[in-house]
Amino acid sequence: MSFEDRSNLVMILINLAMAVYFGFWILPEVFSGGYAGADGLTQWAQAVLLVIPIAIVATIVLTILVTIGYAIATQNAKPSEVVDERDRAIGVLGLRINLVVAGVGFLLALIGLAFLGWTAIVVLNLTFLGFMAGGLAGDVTKFVLYRQG
Question: Would you tell me how many other CB atoms lie within 10 Å of the CB of residue 21?
Fold first, then answer.
């Protein structure tokens, strides 16, 4: 398993953990009207902003732990750092898929706001879900492409 494979696997796990956090703590509060007050959007933003630094730190720590664990398991202390044309192409394709999925989520949120009368909290949630789904789709794409060789 290459360093890119391990990194993509870590990012997939972090994205899934963020989805679980969002699905079990943020969305139920939205559906129960917990963010409906005058400062509801502020509370929502604070709850969502909490997950960003946690995800960054978790990504760094988990990447280090997976790299160390892999080095111990394979008895190979020096991972390959060679980046070739295939690595760059896979990275670009993953980024494109990420941006398309996130863009579609954002576009759906704008359409809902402009024509369907959705509230700001619904639009923010759909936008956040779009970006989260985009990140997951891009990372899964890269992982699958690296696995195919």
Answer: 17
Q: For the whole model, what pTM was predicted?
A: 0.88
Name which of 124, 133, 138 is nearest 104 in CA terms: 133
Report how far residue 105's alpha carbon sits from residue 98's, in angstroms, rounded to the nearest whole number: 11
Nearest to 45 by CA among 119, 124, 129, 132: 124
13, 77 contact by CB (below 8 A)? no
3-state secondary structure (DSSP) of residue 144: helix
Q: Between vectors from CA 62 to CA 128 and to CA 85, what angle results, nearest 5°?
A: 80
Helices (H), 22-119: 27-31, 40-74, 85-115
Which amino acid type is present at position 2?
A: S
Task: Give per-residue pLDDT as tens, 99-135.
Answer: 999 999 999 999 999 999 999 999 999 999 999 999 9
